[in-house]
Task: structure prediction
Amino acid sequence: MDRPDVAPGGHAARPGPARPRGGTADAVVIGAGVNGLVAANILADAGWDVVVCEAADEAGGACRSGETVRPGYVTDLFSAFYPLAAASPVLRALDLEASGLRWAWAPQVLAHPLPDGRCAVLSTDLDVTARSLAEFAPADAGAWHAQADRWQRIREPLVEALVATPFPPVRAGARLVRGRGVAGTLRFTRFALLPVRRFADEEFAGDGAGLLLAGNALHTDLAPEAAGSALFGWLLAMLGQDVGFPVPRGGAGQLTTALVRRLHDRGGQLRTRAAVADVLVRAGRARGVRLVDGTTLGARRAVIADVDAVTLYRHLVAADQLPARLLADLDRFQWDNSTVKINWALSAPIPWSDARCAGAGTVHLGGTMDDLTLMSAQLACQQVPADPFLILGQMTTADPTRSPAGTESAWAYFHVPQAPRGDAGGQGITGQWAAADVAALVERAERKIERYAPGFRDLVVGREIQSPLAIEAANTALHRGALGGGTAGLHQQLVFRPVPGLGRPETPVAGLYLASMSAHPGGGVHGGPGAMAARVALRTAGALGPVRRAVTRTAHARIYVE
Result:
């Protein structure tokens, strides 16, 4: 793993301003993931004195990288491709390029090959994508162009509403509705609720477009038949069509490095190895935090929590400070599926049978729509899938700095149940994630890659396996390898995230704000939860226009009245 004195991606971190170990700041941020660092930067921009406390040896949360498989091969340890980051108005406003961030792109965005030799390709060149889909059905070239046109008409207000605005997104929502009328708005709402299988059936004649959409929806835990999977799959596909799936040049950790550098330049402080034990609450208001070493840090204005909802409400805040109804609702909180990730150092690029996969940064190995449905049904039945859907990243293809010339740094991940009750593959995998379980899954995944790329295993010169428990050990916010901070299912989105309430960063404790993926708008590297928490904290303190604290607190309290 990376040395503690080295920033993610292998670049030496610049120390922040020297300060006493205790003391008081305007705001204390718990967790130095992307959302925590975004919140800290926004507060620092407003002139607040900010301290970020991170339990791990380094910042980054799920945006970290290092030469963990083999020297000279940079591996992204968690997230890797960042279409949401590239399109996010939150991250664009921070101008991370001025702090050293550089993006890189693969020649093609995504490929989804089929065993029969067909392959759907997503490219930032609209005509390339359309020609690929026309091989499945000639009419689908025009149908995909129509979807791209639809995206361009609503792109800005939709991304703002989904990523940058607390619920309800009044201004962004008004921009979405403007010009569409009641009928158009109702039709868009219907589309947003559709399962991706149904949407593909309605809009396309062939299979290719539906595979691009369903594969992107499965980046979460949304099955082809899940309500809302059409919108999520369409959003990622259109972002890929528009901005690609870029990667930080030099490793995912470079995104973190830019955020930390920007924070330091504005006087903010980052403390690593500073795990928070408790949020200090007096008279119903968050007043700071206590670290596990006994140090207390006061917070004059806000405590921002970039931790999962279960950790915040079950471990960091005393139960007697929270409404009983919230704690009862938390019993129904649903995590997204667990993840198994395999990282490889390869002596040469992957020898794909279909050359169209060679230039794609991301390759989906999942077969047909029916195959994706069967795999998803096995997950829903708490079975380890017999033939998992692999999301595979070719990182050197996207960024040549990731490994020596002529080689490839690659990874693949796939989902397994949080608590498996059986193994649809018949190998008796128990979900305890002992060495035998993990080895069986690695064999299952590599055997699948071999079907599309004969000779793949001959190129492996290094391998690292991240089981669900290993992922959680490396980042405690990723509960048993859950990458999304909770299910992306419609029943836990908007006003239902993380529990029924306002869908906003405020918590029942005044001055305490939830800023993690467990909060609206959920998973993905876009900085939305962190930005929303910071902006609401600033408004509550009167730093961003009229103070609306009384209205917000009263409305939030009503949700939990017994």
